UniProtKB/TrEMBL annotation:
Record's keyword terms, sorted: Membrane, Transmembrane, Transmembrane helix
Protein name per the record: Protein NRT1/ PTR FAMILY 5.6-like
Locations listed in the record: Membrane
Protein's organism: Populus alba x Populus x berolinensis
Pfam families, sorted: PTR2
Gene3D superfamilies: MFS general substrate transporter like domains
Amino acid sequence: MSQFIPSLKPCDVGGCEKARKIHEVAFFLAMYSISLGTGGHKPCLQSFGADQFDDDHAEERKKKLSFFNWWNIALCCGLFLGVTVIVYIEDNVSWGVAILILTITMAVTVATFYLGKPYYRYRLPEGSGLTPMLQVLVAAIRKRKLPSPSNPALLYEVPSYKIQGRLLGHTDRLTFLDKAAVLEEEEITNEMKHNPWRLATVTKVEEMKLVLSIIPIWLTSLPFGLCVVQTATFFVKQGATLNRKIGHNFEIPPASIYSLSAVGMIISVVIYDKILVPFLRRATGNERGISILKRIGSGMIFSVVTMSVAALVERKRQKIAEEDIDVLDGEKNVELPMSVFWLAPQFLILGLGDGFTLVGLQEFFYDQVPDSMRSLGMAFFLSVLGAGNFLSSFLITAVDHITEKDGKGWIGKDLNSSRLDKFYWLLAAINSVNIFAYVFFARRYTYKNVQRRVAATNLNKDDGMELMP
């Protein structure tokens, strides 16, 4: 509306007037609407898609393992079109036309999604996922002085036929919470409904353990989020100073360089899903090929390589800037005689890492949180990127403040007079140290222990039970 209604548009062909209140209201209303809509569908849509596969059927479970890979390929295709076609239309046609195309596309998407409503699988509501965790904590504190049974089978659990969800097997981590499932003498003799604030099932205790156990993995994922943020900020800003011409007439918009990370991620995910997983599945006998945490850790190595390559390329760019006459004369926005494709390796390498770490984190937070909290699990993943943005801002401010004391800060308004390469080396060092911390916690992590009903198509029994870690 702000692009097509004259009264809402502060700029025209003749120039831009000072923005009035109505312009600010229209702009921020649009921004907050996007934020509200994104916050509503992003954590839920992906988990809803994964819920369409039945974990109790081996064939569907195998397809579900590829779901997150192909979901991210679709996202990368959308990202590629967004930073190439849409950006080109914005620069060469008009912002109004570009936004209109996006609006129509989103409307068609919502309509298509709604048409599938009768065919979707829906999980039955199970109430708040936070209340049972609080109940476990209260019950464990109340029974902290009781001795734990030597056999975990003596802990309280309800029969599987009495509940709708899946039961979780006992694990030997965070055993102080097991006190919540210890049966007192009066609870053994009383067959009436137990007070959930005094007695919790093993499943509820294990769900609490799951949430507490993923926190170290979440924390050690944040440095990778720091690297991902750079692709949309400093990497693009670097590209704006370089020669972006292809031939004599076409110039790549700076934002379009970001599409290279999407290309890298698509390559990574396709190779992983179609080549690595089948090979590793045969070699290891693991249904996933390798464990989720190994996949995440493999991608973290790419972040160190990316920042190291970015530092070397940036140092080369700075040396060219130091020798350029226009830069020496103090001119701003100088296009350096260096191709923008020097930045391609750092975009592609981080894209390859995204295919391991980001997709792995999505799968991990979906799979390892309690079943009733899977949307919250996807919010955990999104918070890695969100917290990465905040940490990046904090780190830039801190580095700039500290390095300015020596007279020349690492990060200034003019990249040519900054030392962005040192900042990249700092990020490489942070991620290198973080990998050791991640490995420490990952080696001690215990996966969810699910008692899963398995549909058997070639057996006389309708279903069986298997214990799946």
